[in-house]
Amino acid sequence: MKNITKLPKWAQDKIRDVERQRDIAVNALNEYIDDQTPSAFSIDDLICTGEEHGPSFKRRYIQTRQMDIDHAEVHLDIQLRDDYIDIRYNGGEHCLSEICMTPCSFQNIKLTAKKNMRD
């Protein structure tokens, strides 16, 4: 941190307290991330912790064999099977809307509810 010696003593103490609290929080986050058991499902986040310039990459594992995603009128169900991954999709909670599967690039698709498609 830049030179804080020119600030009043109470401000210097406050800044040091905030720095200590941040360091403790970052250490706790890193211990939590490091102590996880790897699994098939994970979430990758870029979090600004101050450890480096810009955000730090953090991966959190989810201990499960099935995950549901609901977004923009699309419901996606992913299940791990013994030898493969089973993926199903439909039109949201009540299966009311039709879904369009659009190829975007090599091994990449997008799922869009018909009502959200552009003409």
Protein architecture, described:
The chain has one helix spanning 9-34; strands spanning 41-47, 56-62, 66-71, 74-80, 85-90, 99-105, 108-113. It is of the alpha+beta class and 119 residues long. A 3-stranded antiparallel beta sheet has the order 3-4-5, with no helix packed on it. The chain is elongated, with a radius of gyration of 23 Å. It starts with 8 loop residues before the first helix and ends in a 6-residue tail after the last strand. The mean pLDDT is 89.
Key phrases:
single chain, alpha+beta, 119 residues, two-stranded antiparallel ribbon
Question: pLDDT average, as an integer?
Answer: 89
- Which structural category do the helix and sheet elements fall into? alpha+beta
Task: Report, as a whole number of angstroms, the end-to-end distance.
Answer: 53 Å
What is the count of helical runs? 1
Query: Number of folding domains?
Result: 2
Number of β-strand runs: 7
Shape: elongated
Strand content: 35-45%
Order of helices and strands: HEEEEEEE
Neighbour order of strands in the largest sheet:
3-4-5
Q: Tell me about the biggest sheet?
A: 3 strands, antiparallel
The helical percent reads 10-25%
What is Rg? 23 Å
